[in-house]
Write a structure and sequence with these properties.
CATH topology: Elongation Factor Tu (Ef-tu), domain 3
Helix content: under 10%
CATH class: Mainly Beta
Shape: elongated
Number of domains: 1
Order of helices and strands: EEEEEEEE
Structural class: mainly beta
Radius of gyration: 18 Å
Strand content: 35-45%
CATH architecture: Beta Barrel
Number of strands: 8
Length: 113
């Protein structure tokens, strides 16, 4: 957090471009929030934009440290919709196929990406 300026979030840009002054949404885990990118930094250099593949820090206006959490995603407003439940059919690899060595137990919580 930079007092008076906002909070810096870090991560890799998966696709597209993020520019200074662009409106973005913080999606996932907590309720979706809108904010504006006021700075993009990579390897201690200030940039006008970051591109896919870059590891960057983004300064977000009006977001406090408690407003963001590891695992959330920055995205173009309206482009990503978070879900807390879904139905899926999954094939789990056997031990011989390079999969799990132990069985599933009650309350197992797999992560899907």
């Amino acid at each position: 957090s930079i007092s008076g300026r906002g909070t810096v979030v870090t991560g890799r840009i998966e696709r597209g471009v993020i520019k200074v002054g662009e409106e973005v949404e913080i999606v996932g885990i907590k309720p979706t929030t809108k904010t504006v990118v006021t700075g993009v930094e990579m390897f201690r250099k200030l940039l006008d934009q970051g591109e896919a593949g870059d590891n960057v820090g983004c300064l977000l206006r009006g977001v406090d440290r408690e407003g963001v959490e590891r695992g959330q995603v920055l995205c173009k407003p309206g482009s990503v919709k978070p879900h807390t439940k879904f139905k899926a059919e999954a094939y789990i690899l056997t031990k011989e196929e390079g999969g799990r060595h132990t069985p599933f137990f009650g309350n197992y919580r797999p992560q899907f990406y």
